[in-house]
């Protein structure tokens, strides 16, 4: 890819802008000096303020213990420039390889957590564990986004949306219906 | 729209196919003889089998009590044929209007729950409440999908993905990367 996305600070209360459309994300973590990355499609926004996001992280992932022990992660937003990287990360395990090195990604120091951000991604949402009541039964973590950075351009990045079975849908046309909304329903 | 989508039975273990890409959905409910519909974008797949889906249903919605009391709902998948309907449903309340009548939608009898499906939608996922441990604190419901129906065509429907602020992203290009996946990672 030609250069890195130039991320700027972004309001944590507005991360729904990027996550509500349902993209595949890359979740990075760090624990005891080692870093890892996993591909994840099972997430949802839960609240604007505090900025809460729910992530289902399967217990079979090497990242699971790293994220639970550190209580932190960064949710990184990849675009079509990283399609094969997203697949590669999802098909390998951090138990055997250093994913940053293996996939030529750049670990970027985050601002509020120790887990690294991924420079090549369009946006990075730094998260601290907020609630683990459903982790044992459902592997469902609730994180608070404590800092957010996003590239202002392109305004609507070509995010990847996983349908299963090796097939992705790419973010398409933008449809503006602001005129039909009650004012209090708009951001 | 020209005719209704012709839905056929679909395996409940494969609903990630439609929900993981992150579309806006219409959630229909019934309680004490009254039906309602709400627009919802905050959801995630949680498990293949049993087929579990998490929904964040804000307590301010008229549907909240209907869904909690009945322990049921149907998650309906609208496409661009229903864009203005999706907006209209999200900007009105079932406390004052009958949304099926107001928006010209057809209530279709579901197979395993009393809540109605919406005939005009591409797919319908019939749900029973599975876990309410996080409802009081986060309005987060975990449902089991007990029956699923989806139109076989089009294979990749033009779903709507909400970015906030009155703007939707429409499902775009399909990218097949099956060849790069380990076989056990495919559905």
Give the tags.
8-stranded antiparallel sheet; two-stranded antiparallel sheet; homodimer; 187 residues; 12 strands; alpha+beta; Flavin reductase family protein (chains A, B); Pnp Oxidase, Chain A; 5 helices; FMN binding (chains A, B); 37% strand; Split_barrel_FMN-bd (chains A, B)
How is this structure best summarized?
Two copies of one chain form a homodimer. The first copy, chain A, contains five helices and twelve strands.
Count helical runs of chain A.
5
What is the helix/strand order of chain A? EHEEEEHEHHEEEHEEE
Oligomer state equals homodimer
CATH topology of chain A: Pnp Oxidase, Chain A
CATH class of chain A: Mainly Beta
For the record, what is the CATH homologous superfamily label of chain A? Electron Transport, Fmn-binding Protein, Chain A
| Whole-number total of structural domains of chain A | 1
Number of beta strands of chain A: 12
Largest interface (C-beta under 8 Å): A-B, 59 and 59 residues
What class would the helix/strand composition of chain A place it in? alpha+beta
CATH architecture of chain A: Roll
Tell me the radius of gyration of chain A.
16 Å
What coarse outline of chain A follows from CA principal-axis ratios? Answer: globular
